[in-house]
Amino acid sequence: MEIKICGITNLEDAASACEYGADALGFIFYKKSPRYITPETVRQIIDNLPRAVIRVGVFVNHAIRTVKDIYEFCGLDLIQLHGDESPEYCRQFPESILIKASSPRSEDELSILKYYPVKAVLIDARDPALYGGTGKKSDWEMAMKLKKICPLVLSGGLNPGNILEAIETVLPNAVDVNSGVEVSPQKKDSDKMKNIIKMVHAVKRKSPVTIFAPSKPIN
């Protein structure tokens, strides 16, 4: 089972997550997020990371050109769209590098996701003002339905206390953890990161789909 540690804001946390075996790290470029980080800082952090870890940029309703420029400048592997981006917006990027975050609340909203040309969909407990990182539990029942449509990354309120229950219940392809391993929005809890990564990697179930892997660059 793969795990991404999102909301990384400094090299110390990034290095610790890599040391503990995180499959991917997420960097949030949404300026209103308490976990916002500049492209310049991300580039400095990435220059000091082992190549094996996957670098994911998180964007919220950014201009397409801005996303592409930051992707190239920072040396990212994947793009996570966490706003109100449309299928048409997503078609401006290779499907192999896209993860679309969503918080479907109905069957109709769920069915729309099958039209998104993306590698996977991340389900989260969305607050319109924050676009993720709320610490609230996502809708696991909806997540199980979403899994039948496309590869699934489960997020939303995951922490060392509920991660195994979440995996056993939903059976996602990967999990994404943010506020559940924090001291504060700008600082991760090293022990919690270590424990949750160990717990996720100990899960015997192997996903048929690899979410956090290098993909084709933007042309």
* Tally of DSSP helical segments: 8
| Main sheet record | 8 strands, parallel, barrel
Strand arrangement within the widest β-sheet reads 1-2-3-4-5-6-7-8
Percentage of residues in strands: 15-25%
Q: Uncertain regions: pLDDT < 50 for 5+ in a row? A: none
In total, the number of strands is: 10
Helix content: 25-40%
Assembly annotation: single chain
Mean pLDDT: 93
- CATH level-4 homologous superfamily: Aldolase class I
Category from helices, strands and their pairing: alpha/beta
CATH class: Alpha Beta
Q: What is the CATH architecture assignment?
A: Alpha-Beta Barrel
| Number of self-contained structural domains | 1
What is shown here, in short?
The protein has 219 residues and is α/β, with parallel strands linked by helices.
